[in-house]
Design brief:
- The complex is a heterodimer of chains A (884) and B (331).
- Among the domains of chain A are: 27-127, Tetratricopeptide repeat domain (Serine Threonine Protein Phosphatase 5, Tetratricopeptide repeat, Alpha Horseshoe), CATH 1.25.40.10; 206-267, Serine Threonine Protein Phosphatase 5, Tetratricopeptide repeat (Alpha Horseshoe), CATH 1.25.40.10; 539-666, no CATH class; 798-884, Tetratricopeptide repeat domain (Serine Threonine Protein Phosphatase 5, Tetratricopeptide repeat), CATH 1.25.40.10.
- The radius of gyration of chain A is 35 Å and the shape is globular.
- Chain A is mostly helical.
- Chain A has 46 helices and 5 strands.
- By secondary structure, chain B is of the alpha/beta class.
- A 7-stranded mixed β-sheet of chain B has the order 4-3-2-5-9-10-11, sandwiched between helices. In chain B, strands 6-7-8 form a 3-stranded antiparallel β-sheet.
- In chain B, strand 7 and strand 8 (128-129) form a beta hairpin.
- The longest helix of chain B is centred in the C-terminal third of the chain and has 25 residues, at 302-326.
- The chains are: A mainly alpha (884), B alpha/beta (331).
């Protein structure tokens, strides 16, 4: 029989036990809760929880650590310092908080005090003394005592090898030390990554090693991996300020406006996060807003006056502002902290390059590698910027050095790979240009690019009274990814071309979908930049250079240089266009997908308005103002005698006057391109209600056309055209009217529509082909040839177009163009090469160039010796020589 | 040398005009099942064009052409429905009447598939496999065969059908390239249009047609910025492996370059005019010298090569003009 338990005694024992354990159990629970709040980014809850614990258990190092960390994460460094100090004062025999105290002091730039704290942690044998040792070595490194610091970092390898089980913090310390050693042996970067990974496995909830992994990827420009790392932290803690900063830096690679927003969010959580302030400053520098940049750096230096990065960025700002005294002072401060800090010049090189000052970037990078021959980043920056100014050999050599020192730098590797690709490109030259084009396309594109570039040079030189040094190197890439690497070192850039000044790079027409851009106008645009950069010593702001370059496109050929879209006018109406003073943001940090395109167009209109109101010389005088280092507002005041605010008002009026009719007719543009979703009755009702509704009229016209009710469609399309005559984008009324007229046999009327369309939009390939066909049907060979000629600057790869243009040119006796077109046909490597060569020879012969004709027909006959027509031509040539 | 010179044998008085083909040529065209009207239509368009070119341009007599298609009523050239039974029947019939030295062109246009490792050409009713065709082709033991399977997933036919006296063309490199092909349109255009006769001998060889079509396919894909999803193959050296870029000097292409889709009577003839015979003889010699010179090009100084080349070409041009004048042809 079982004995009955004596509940009375048992209960009292239980009660006694609970009296003993309840605070402990409760405290453990609260500690876990505070930690969870910290890990999830509920920092206020975490601070409250840890604070209660610290009050209740002042001897608990865990609670004190938690509180110091939580306070530090939100930038309350003073409070964190106070907490740590209280702990070490009250628990003088415990060394546990010295390391954290040192880190908090370090964040405030109090390096000597921090060093003493770390030394105390080591001396006292704190559980985190390995981290303290690491911090001591880093302090030494940052003072420029590199050799000794390296010896100390090296000792961490022994720690790793000889200690059987390291915890996450210790593995993180080892990894960071090994990362420093990577400068001598790049393979150690892999070991660092491995140790960080082990640290993550040892403590999956500790974000520190994950953050450091992300930052390592960022340092090597491995954007995708960095993004994954920061994303995974933010999925667990959306408020982690350093992860937000990491993500911001990653997004900057892609030129995303999120970079600015993320950096600001990071600072909202930790207003004293110095790297975030410094990063924000660099973003403002890119926007050429040096005032805001300086304010951010100033706030960073208020928190930590010893931050080398902040001092470097401050020096860059002063340099760009032309403030030599300020620059010297920032440099003095940086080098008094670390006389071997190559990062100072690397930062200057990076900032210079981002502001298109490539020659200066070369100079600064050179100084970086002279100061520290192991600055692989310095060699990388030197090489990349040398390539940008056309020093190809020197650039490659320095990139090779950079790669040998750090083969994990993606930018360096990509660029070297690109240089290998360039080895397969062909070089052709004109008087002032050297074209470097993929071997398959070189013979074709150089036929057009050379002539066009020379024309651009002459016209721009006359306009700006300036002649850039020659030869100007033009690289044309059939792979957009290669162009992107050439531009920013990484894939993913959205632009079509770039001008570094003496070097231009652009997409080949084969790099994009047929007809998606006008490569001729792109080339013209980039050459214009070369002039603007040269005239201003590379000081022209982005928005002005873009606006001027688009304006130059427009002057070059009808239909080049962009045209107005309903989206642009809607953005204007809704106040989404930026004021001139902030127009750079539209290029650098667009807030919506179309803003970059809108900014190009807006900037060009600003330039047009200036030219209209102040004469063409005003634009040149503005360039001179920028060359003298003046800001946009100063340039507006001195050249245009107006301030930006007043100009913005004038510009707004200008837009209203110029596009008033269209603005009024754009009641709602959602019907554009989406009429398939609406019934014809709905559209008809809208037309009936408001005959001045552009979108409804256009949609109605399109619907009726699709139904074959052409006569009924015409009045709607005509109405749409009169409401918004500048619209020549997708589905425009000109195109539909042209097709209707063609179908109705009214070729002349169709031609008129297409001429009007292509005068506005010079990028519509189909329109040019259609126009050429119609003009031929009207026996207008000259017009047809002109249309085909213009089509070639959109898409030059169709051999049939070249053949047709050659025939038309021959018909017109334009042997120069006929020869060019026959050469183009040969360059396109036709299956019937013998025939193409024969036709080229015939064109030469007709043009009186017997020598070229003879050489070429022999080439044709070498392929096809019994080619009767070619044989006859050969005999003709020889007979003609005999007759001479 | 492609041409035969018999003047010496015939004492110089009687000359056979140079010709490459003495054999009778037969053409069997099969348009497979379309599945959708647009495919049926385009397949039949291609086939009809090819048959028209063979008859009107290359002078193949009607009795040398067999054209089977999905819808026999759609065109008067179509002899019957392209069922397996009819295809096998037509080929078996041809096997009984084709001369031992005859040349048989078999062209398949349509969809293909690879099911369970078996390569098929899709027909109304039961499909025909590569093995089915191999069985029928075995009935042509002495004839030269051009077998062009221009369907999707056709690459797998080569290992099964490859052999002596056979040139096999496929529109794809394997059974895994299953997308619809544009190669057939260009292959047909090579025979029906201008542009494929790259050596300007006024004939289109199978090799010329193949090269023309593959390059036009590549150009079409490139202009549309699409990745090439069809890689045509030619096998004519009997090794069972096709080439995407055949080179007669090193492998495939040697047989295909001397196979032409035309009537043997088109270019054959006897020359009784001694002056003309002498001109032809001179032309032949010049061609031989040119071939010899071109084979030495890499070893010669460029300038010397060019000088000699031009001299020979000039001589050849004069001789050709004289032949034309003697024959009363317009230059």
């Amino acid at each position: 029989m079982l004995a009955r338990p004596c509940w009375g005694r048992a209960l009292s024992l239980l009660a006694a036990l609970s009296c003993l354990t309840a605070p402990y159990v409760w405290a453990q629970g609260e500690l876990a809760g505070a930690r969870a709040a910290y890990n999830e980014g509920r920092y206020d809850d975490a601070i409250s929880g840890f604070t209660r614990l610290v009050r209740r258990q002042p001897a608990s190092a865990e609670a004190a650590r938690g509180l110091v960390r939580a306070l530090g994460e939100v930038g309350r460094y003073r409070d964190a310092e106070h907490t740590a100090r209280r702990f070490v004062e009250r628990n003088s025999r415990s060394p546990e908080l010295w390391t954290l105290l040192g880190e908090v002091l370090l964040r405030q730039g109090r390096r000597d005090e921090a060093e003493r704290a770390f030394a105390n942690a080591v001396r006292g044998g704190a559980s985190d003394s390995l981290a303290a040792r690491l911090n001591l070595a880093i302090l030494r490194y940052e003072r420029g005592d590199v050799a000794e610091a390296m010896r100390e970092f090296d000792a961490f390898i022994d720690v790793y090898n000889q200690t059987p089980r390291l915890n996450s913090d210790e593995l993180t310390a080892v990894a960071t030390a090994v990362r420093y050693l990577g400068v001598n042996d790049p393979q150690l970067y892999r070991d660092a990554l491995r140790a960080y990974d082990e640290a993550v496995s040892a403590a999956p909830h500790d974000f520190e090693p994950q953050l450091l992994i992300g930052e390592l990827f960022l340092e090597k420009y491995s954007g995708t991996e960095a993004l994954e790392t920061f994303d995974s932290i933010l999925a667990k803690n959306p408020n982690h300020p350093r992860a937000l900063l990491g993500l911001a830096r990653t997004r900057r690679f892609a030129g995303s406006p999120e970079a600015l927003q993320l950096a600001r969010r990071s600072i909202e959580i930790n207003p004293n996060l110095v790297p975030a302030r410094v990063f924000l400053a660099t973003l403002y520098i890119e926007l050429e807003d040096y005032g805001k940049a300086a304010r951010e750096v100033g706030r960073a230096l208020e928190v930590d006056s010893t931050t080398l990065q902040a001092l470097s960025v401050l020096a860059a700002i002063r340099f760009l502002q032309g403030d030599q005294g300020g620059f010297d002072e920032a440099r003095r401060r940086a080098f008094s902290l670390n006389p071997r800090f190559a990062g100072f010049y690397n930062t200057l090189a990076e900032v210079s390059a981002r502001n298109r000052l490539y020659h200066l970037a070369v100079r600064f990078a050179q100084q970086a590698v002279e100061l520290d021959p192991k600055s692989w980043r310095g060699y990388g920056l030197l090489g990349i910027n040398q390539l940008r100014v056309g020093s190809m050999e020197a650039g490659r050599e320095n990139l090779e050095v950079a790669f040998e020192g750090d083969p994990y730098d993606v930018w360096t590797k990509n660029t070297l790979d690109l240089l290998d690709t360039l080895a397969h490109y062909s070089e052709t030259a004109t008087a002032r240009f050297r074209f470097v084009i993929d071997g398959k396309e070189s013979r074709l594109l150089s036929l057009y690019a050379g002539e066009l570039a020379e024309e651009a040079y002459d016209r721009l030189a006359a306009r700006y009274g300036y002649r850039p040094a020659t030869p100007i190197r033009v690289e044309v890439y059939p792979s957009h990814a290669d162009f992107s690497v050439r531009t920013v070192g990484l894939v993913g850039v959205g632009a079509l071309g770039v001008s570094f000044g003496p070097v231009l790079a652009m997409d080949s027409p084969s790099a994009r979908e047929l007809g998606s851009f006008n490569w001729g106008s792109t080339l013209w645009h980039e050459i214009a930049h070369t002039f603007h950069l040269g005239v201003t010593d590379h000081k022209v702001p982005r928005w002005f250079s873009e606006g001027l370059a688009v304006l130059e496109e427009r002057r070059a050929r009808p239909g080049w240089g962009g045209d107005v879209s309903p989206g642009f006018l809607m953005a204007f109406r809704e106040g989404r266009l930026l004021p001139v003073g902030e127009l750079n943001n539209g290029f650098m940090r667009p807030q919506y997908p179309e803003q970059v395109a809108f900014s190009y167009y807006q900037a060009s209109l600003v330039c047009e308005l200036i030219e209209r109101d102040h004469g063409p010389q005003a634009l040149s005088r503005m360039l001179q103002g920028y060359r003298d280092g003046r800001s946009t507002s100063a340039v507006f005041r001195s050249v245009l005698h107006t301030d930006l605010e007043a100009f913005n008002e004038v510009f707004e009026r200008y837009l209203r006057d110029r596009f008033g009719r269209a603005l009024a007719a754009l009641g709602s543009v959602e019907l554009l391109g989406a009429h398939g979703k609406r019934s014809r009755d709905e559209v008809a009702e809208r037309v009936r209600r408001d005959p001045d509704d552009f979108a409804a009229q256009l949609a109605m016209g399109q619907m009726l056309t699709a139904e074959g009710r052409l006569d009924e469609a015409v009045p709607h399309l005509e109405r749409a055209k009169s409401l918004f005559p500048e619209y020549a984008g997708p589905g425009n009324p000109y195109w539909h009217l042209a097709l209707i007229h063609k179908r109705q046999g009214a070729a002349r009327k169709a031609v008129e529509e297409l001429l009007a369309l292509t005068a506005i939009n010079g990028g519509n390939y189909q329109a040019f082909l259609e126009l050429a066909g119609l003009q031929e049907s009207l026996q207008d060979s000259k017009g047809a040839a002109e249309a085909l000629d213009r089509a070639l600057y959109v898409y030059p790869m169709d051999i049939a177009v070249h053949r047709r243009l050659a025939e038309l040119s021959a018909e017109l006796g334009d042997w120069g163009r006929a020869i060019r077109e026959r050469r183009a046909a040969v360059a396109l490597d036709p299956v019937d090469r013998a025939k193409a060569l024969y036709q080229l020879a015939r064109a030469y012969f007709s043009a009186g160039d017997r020598e070229s004709a003879r050489r070429t027909v022999v080439q044709a006959l070498e392929i096809a010796p019994n080619y009767a027509a070619a044989q006859d031509l050969l005999l003709e040539i020889h007979d003609a020589r005999k007759d001479r | 040398m492609r041409r035969t010179w018999l003047a010496a044998v015939l004492g110089g008085a009687l000359v056979v005009r140079p010709m490459d083909v003495m054999a009778q040529t037969y053409l069997v065209v099969v348009s497979g099942i379309g599945g959708e009207p647009k495919y049926s239509q385009v397949f039949e368009e291609w086939c009809t064009t090819l048959v028209g070119a063979a008859r009107d341009r290359f002078h193949l007599p009607d009795e040398s052409i067999v054209y089977l298609a999905e819808s026999p009523g759609r065109h008067t050239d179509i002899a019957g429905k392209s069922t397996k039974q009819n295809v096998e029947g037509a080929l078996n019939d041809l096997a009984t009447r084709a001369e031992p030295a005859a040349r048989i062109f078999i062209v398949l246009v349509g969809h293909g598939s690879a099911v369970g490792g078996q390569m098929r050409f899709n027909l109304p009713g039961p499909d025909m496999t590569a093995e089915d065709f191999a069985a029928v082709l075995s009935r042509f033991p002495t004839q030269e065969i051009v077998f062009a399977n221009l369907s999707s997933a056709s690459g797998g036919f080569i290992p099964v059908l490859s052999g002596k006296r056979r040139a096999i063309v496929t529109a794809t490199k394997s059974g895994f390239e299953r997308n619809e092909t544009i190669f057939p349109g260009h292959f047909v255009a090579a025979f029906a249009g201008d542009g494929a006769d790259t050596d300007k001998d006024e004939r289109v060889s199978v090799l010329e047609a193949f090269n023309y079509a593959r390059r036009e396919v590549a150009r079409a894909y490139e202009s549309e910025n699409r990745l090439l999803t069809e890689h045509a193959l030619l096998d004519d050296d009997g090794d069972g492996r096709g080439s995407t870029e055949p080179d007669p000097l090193t492998g495939d292409g040697g047989m295909a370059m001397r196979l032409f889709l035309h009537s043997p009577t088109q270019s054959a003839g006897v020359i009784s005019d001694p002056e003309l015979a002498a001109l032809y003889k001179g032309k032949e010699q010049l061609e031989q010298q040119l071939a010899a010179l071109r084979s030495r090009k890499d070893e010669m100084a460029a300038e010397l090569y060019q000088r000699q080349l031009e001299r020979l070409l000039l001589e050849l041009a004069r001789t050709s003009r004289a032949i034309r004048e003697r024959e009363g042809k317009q230059p």
